[in-house]
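Dig into this one:

. . .
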Amino acid sequence: MINAINELRAAAIKSLDAAVDPSTLEQWRIEFLGSNGKLKEAMARLKSAPREQKPELGRLANELKVALETEFAAAKSRMSADPPAASVDVTLPGVDLGSGSRHILTRTIDEIIEAFARMGFSVADGPEVEDEWHNFTALNIPEGHTAREATDNFYMGEHAGIKRLLRTQTSTVQIRALEAQKPPLKIVAVGRVYRPDTHDATHFSMFHQIEGLCIDRALSMVDLKTALIQFAGAYFGKDAEVRMRPSFFPFTEPSAEVDMKMEVRGQLQWVELGGCGMVDPHVLQAVGLDPEEWSGYAFGLGIERIAMRRYGIADIRWLYENDARFLRQF
């Protein structure tokens, strides 16, 4: 019986070494460790062994069982970790993965910044998480104004008595730029802004704006319109037109909506791109500037709106779905 157990061990190990895939390994398990396998058969024969040999034979049989189960588990783990490599014909041509490109919004932002840079504007930046002072108060939006309502903003709690929120406009960068730099200055700020809008073809809870600000002495609406006309010509072509319609914004006075005539699906149309106006004296006073000495103009344009109109994109959500079929068109 002892010789039989040792011979079974040698045969099992040899057979296990020959198992090369999960299928043959499972066949080995059934043959040696299964309910009707050779190990069970050997243990059943122990009943007929002489009484004085049973303890030794029982010990050897249990050791064999543990050894075979251990070897099986190791072989199974090895096959799972290192599956056999598929054969590869190295003489075949490689798979063309295609070439990448900048996202349409990134490209639009870079093009707009370049157009304003040629007009003498430098780029400014600011945080996306803001306090109420920079997002509202300094921009002449007083306590109790409807623009401060929780339904129109993403508030992020209060720390040390200061309420934080995701900025709703890049106009906050104007205030930070004026706090850090004395006029004259001429800047544009591009970045993400956040508003809890319901997502549809023209609205998204996160989008991009470009904000322009120029502070100097004796500026007027003529300077503002000139800057917008120059931008339209540089970005949309020499035939681009600009018109301004009276409007209201708390941080500019007078204020206007900006429309630009551009080609949409083969037809020239007036497209609303944002707002503009002369910087309100209260905004200048908030950053320590004398409105009797300094004046300025500001404008804010929607990046998605420009990209959608210029490239004939019907739904703003397409810009954020990362569908390669859509992105490859640009």
